[in-house]
Amino acid sequence: MVKMYRETCQICGCQITRKKGVYATDTIEGRSHATKHHYVAERFFGRSIFKNMKDPWGLEGQKEVFCYECHEELLHNPVLTPKDIQRFAELVERTGLNEKKKTSSKAKIAGRINLLHEVIKKGLEALA
Ligand SMILES: [Zn+2]
């Protein structure tokens, strides 16, 4: 007996849809449509943020399949309240990652990206 492989979203676990013409439509098929997400944005490498430094996570080029909702609506649009931003800005300043004036270096934004990841990691650990 051949077992059917069912592709599922790595966050919500829904069954992934792969069908032309429905991606991002407000239908069950559109909402569950396959989309790939890079763990670390491609634009952070090569010509940009992590250009002159090592990928802190060792995840360059790695991606995973998610449903449209988890990729485009959840991962790309995290809700941050003004209080969340204020608290993060305080962390940024305390860790020396604030900038009075931009320079040619992207080390501070790389540090802030790392810091935000640390905040998410600690939050996940706290809730686990
Ligand atoms: Zn999902």
Structural write-up:
This protein has 4 helices and 2 strands. It has 128 residues and is mainly alpha-helical. A two-stranded antiparallel sheet has the order 1-2. The chain binds zinc ion (ZN).
The ordered H/E elements are HEEHHH
Helix content: 25-40%
Please give the alpha-carbon distance between the first and last residues: 38 Å
Largest sheet at a glance? Answer: 2 strands, antiparallel
Bound molecules: zinc ion
How many domains would you count in the coordinates?
2
| Percent of residues in β-strands | 5-15%
Strand order, sheet with most strands: 1-2
Question: What labels describe this entry?
Answer:
128 residues, mainly alpha, 2 domains, 4 helices, single chain, two-stranded antiparallel ribbon
Topology at a glance:
Blueprint: H1 28-31, E1 34-38, E2 63-67, H2 68-75, H3 82-94, H4 107-127
Antiparallel strand pairs: 1-2
The structure holds zinc ion.
Write a concise synopsis of the structure shown.
This protein is mainly alpha-helical and 128 residues long. Helix content is 36%, strand content 8%. It is built from 4 helices and 2 strands.
